[in-house]
UniProtKB/TrEMBL annotation:
GO terms for molecular function: glycylpeptide N-tetradecanoyltransferase activity. It holds the Pfam family NMT_C. Keywords: Acyltransferase, Cytoplasm, Transferase. It catalyses: N-terminal glycyl-[protein] + tetradecanoyl-CoA = N-tetradecanoylglycyl-[protein] + CoA + H(+). It comes from Torulaspora globosa. This is Glycylpeptide N-tetradecanoyltransferase. Residues 230-455 form the Glycylpeptide N-tetradecanoyltransferase C-terminal domain.
Amino acid sequence: MSGEQNEKLTELLKLLKLNNGDLSKLTQEQRKEMKDYKFWKTQPVTRLDESVQKEGPIDRKKTPDEISDQPLPLLGDFEWCTVDVTDQKQLEDVFLLLNENYVEDRDATFRFKYTREFFNWSLRSPGWKQDWHVGVRVGSTKKLVAFISAIPVNLRVRDNTVRSVEINFLCVHKQLRGKRLTPVMIKEITRRVNRCDIWYALYTSGTILPSPVSVCRYTHRPLNWSKLHDVGFTHMPSHATRNQMIAKYTLPKATSTEGLRPMEEKDLDEVRLLFEKYQSRFDLVQNFDEAEFKHWFLGNDEKTASNPSSKVIYSYVVENQNGQISDFFSFYSLPFTILNNSVHKELGIGYLFYYASDADLEYADRFSPEATAALKERLCGLMNDACILARDAKMDVFNALTSQDNALFLEPLKFGPGDGFLNFYLFNYRAFPITGGIKDDKSYDTVKRSNVGVVML
């Protein structure tokens, strides 16, 4: 646990003690944090005040027969449902819930804009189960008021690979945030996953829960600074003019990497081999089989072929003069809806996904000055081209975490540090801390970099 997390928890516990355990004496945010802490104390997760001595599972492995086949009880007029995301009407219910109640910025200016194509890609990866798309509806009206999902993954934590799930899209309607639905949702998705003989999970949150295995920072590279400023996404520095800021973030008209082209199905085997070599350097990764690799980097929605504007995943390779693939990178599209703006209704957002390069694979030590210099030079060229391609795809900003080897190119390519941080968590698995690409002062760590190799949507 970091000093900041320890200090925050200690402060809450002191406040609670001073008030004789009365949660009502705390602020609304503090009450939520204490309730969350009490819930997570009942779960097989690393405690905030725990020093990990050995990596591995927390709870003994049970059998699916030991897990109840009945859903948890719900209060009031609420009822469980399994959402069929292949049914357009039910998918629309998920859109409505997430688009109106999922993550917003603090000023409620921007909100994720999900599409059918995005959910086909993110929720229907190979091995997906409809039973893991869990919803809560109001019994009388059948309105969907909560949702949580899981997808299967083979997760490697350093030298140990475990069959696991990624938990995502946990959302509770704003008007029900005080009803303690979130813990019940977590318990129910856990029950359904356990029934399939899976006992581990990876999840992320912008808030501190017990207990992060790693923390990465969000970064942003403006592609259309003028529009970003007009909608309040970026602000004008006191010492600069509008024209100066536009000029600062203007990119070249075309990419510069020789042999750069869109990835094709014929490239899958070679790219996957390169990717596995590159990923072997990280401590927390997802291992992809052939079907998963094709799904995540080429997509699975035929509609995008005839309607490029609905495209979600963009993957590119670099083919050298010998016909071999030396690099690949990918990014995905998840736009924002702009609230309360008379001119702009949508913000195009590109998110850096996975990449790989052979630039430093010949070196025994990836952190040596020679290896670092070679990889930094290659990544700066590749990611600058990724920004150009994202701009050409009508994206206004390109986002990246400080994970992977990103710290090497973020500052040179003018990625500014964002206000948000992403905490990575493991369910039922203790692990030593994993570097997240940031220093104690939250600046980019170009020396230790990051050992987080997994990307969560």
